[in-house]
Write a structure and sequence with these properties.
It comes from Escallonia herrerae. The chain has 583 residues and is α+β, with helices and mostly antiparallel strands. The protein has 14 helices and 26 strands.
Length: 583
Amino acid sequence: MAVLHSQKLILLIVILWFCMAVCTPPEDPIRCSSKNSNCTITNSYGAFPDRARCRAADVAYPTTEEELISIVANATMNRRKMKVATRFSHSIPKLVCQEGEDGLLISTKNLNRIVNVDGLSRLISVESGVTLRQLINEAAKAGLALPYAPYWWGLTIGGLLGTGAHGSTLWGNGSSVHDYVVQIRIVSPAGAKEGYARVRTLNDGDPELDAARVSLGVLGVISQVTLRLQPMFKRSITYLTKNDSDLGDQATTFGNQHEFADLIWYPSQHKVVYRLDDRVPSNVSGNGLLDFPGFRSTASVALAVIRTTEEIQESKGDADGKCRGAVLTASLLKTGAYGLTNDGIAFTHYPVVGFQNRLQASGTCLDSLEDARITACPWDPRVKGLFFHQTTISVGLSKVKSFIQDVQKLVDLEPKSLCVVELYDGILMRYVKLSSAYLGKQEDALDFDITYYRSKDPSIPRLYEDILEEVEQMAVFKYGGLPHWGKNRNVAFEGVIKKYKNAKSFLKVKQIYDPLGLFSSKWTDQVLGVKDEVTMFKEGCALEGLCICSQDAHCAPKKGYFCRPGKVYENARVCTPPSSGIR
C-alpha cells in the first residue's frame, strides 16, 4: 500500500506540473568545443541504441539555399563526409552519425522559413527546417490544413520526410506526410563541371520523387518542400474503452470505420481504448484543443522521483508495483480525456469537436523559457527523467489479428508481463497505408508503437525483457513487419531492405545523386543492405537489441544470462538471467 500511495503522490505532482506553460527548452543536439568545430551530436533522448556519442569535425548552419549549395559544394570538392542534422534530432537510430570524426554536420536549424502559402491551389512551400507546428499554424492562417500528421509537433519537415513519419488513417492518400508532397528541392553532390553541387527540383509524377519522399538523408540535403493541403475542417473525437477479447477482429476493420481512428492497448489489463474520430461540418459547435499530457512540461523533481521509483521496481522485480502504476496511469489519462479539452481550458464531455490545427498534434513542452531546468520535457537527458526504448513496427492488416492473438497468448502465460509498457501509455496503434515512396509502407498496415523502460546500465536486464523481445521478434520476423525508420533498436532493422520491392530503384537513385557516398554512413549502408549487417555482436548485445540472442556469448554469461527460445514464437531467441525474478 505504501508503494501505491507513493505512486499516487508522484502522479499528482506530475499532473499539477502538467498544467504549467513553461519549461526549460530542449538543448541543441549539437555541441562543439570550439565555436562550430570539434563537435558531438546525439538525439533528443541523449542516447543512440548502441549508446555511442557521434562526432564531427565541424557543423554548418546555412540560412539560405545558396549558402547550403556552397557548403555542399565545398565539402564535395574535399570529399568530406556529410550528415544532415535537425533542430531537435528526435530520431532514435543513428541517422545523423558519420564514420570517423572528420566529417561535416549540416544543420537545418536556420532553414526555417515559410516560403509561400497559396490558398487557391492549396499548396504550402517551406524550407526543410520548418517544424510541423509552424506548418500547421501557417496553413491555418490561410484556412488550410495538413490532413494527417504525427502527433508530436517537434519534428522538422525534412526530418519527418527522412524517416517516413505519419499519423493514423487508411483514408485518402494515407497517414504519411510524404504522400502529400508535390515537390522537393534537394541539394546533392556533383562533379567539377557542375560546381560540385547540384539542386534538383522533383515534381509530382517524377519517379525520383518517390525515392526522395523517404530517403534517410542519403540523397543529399532537402532545401525546400511543397505539400498539398486541404480546406480547414473540423473533427469530432470520442474515446471509448472496451475489453480486448475481440481486438484481433476489431483492429482489422476499425480503421475503415473512422477517418482518424487509432487504438491504445493495455494488454495486461485486457483493455483497449478506441478513438472514434471523424470529420464533421465546420458549423458544428466546438473549439476543442489537444494538449497531450506526455508532451507537456513536467517538474524535474517529479521526473526524478518517477524514474527512481521505476529503477527500484526493476531492481526488486516488483511486477505488482508496475501493474498498479499502469492501472493508475491509464485511469488518469482516461479522466483527463487524453489531453483533450472542449474549449482549450477544460474537458466536460465527448465528443470533443474542434478545428484540425488544434487537434492533430501537440508538444507544449517546447513552448519554453529558460527556468534552470526546474521543468523539462519528460525525456530531456539533462535531468533524471524518462529513459526508454521504442519498438515501433507496422504489421500488415492481413496479419494483424494473428499477431495480436500471439501477444495475448504471451499475456496469458505471463499476466503481468506487459504492465511495463502500460506505464508508458500502453501500445499506441496507428493505421498506415500503402505508399508510392520506395522506402514507404509496402501495404496497408497497423503500426504498433511500444515504449518501455531502458536501464542506464546496458548489462542489466529489464523486467520481463524476454517477453518484450519475443513480441519484437514476432512482429519483425514472424509477421514480416516494417520498422519505423526514426525509431527502434538495431534488431528491428535486420534484413529490412529485403522487404521493400523498390529497394533497387532507391539504390539506383542514391548512386546517381551521391556516387561517392558522402551522405552515407556505416549505419545507413547496413540498413540499406550495401554492406555488412546492422546487428553488433559482443557480450551482452542482445540485452540492448543490438543483436539477436543466438548463443550465450550474446547474453553476457559472466553475469549469468543465458539464451533460450521464445514461449510463443519458436524462432525467437531471448536473453534470460536465471533466478532473476523476471520469469
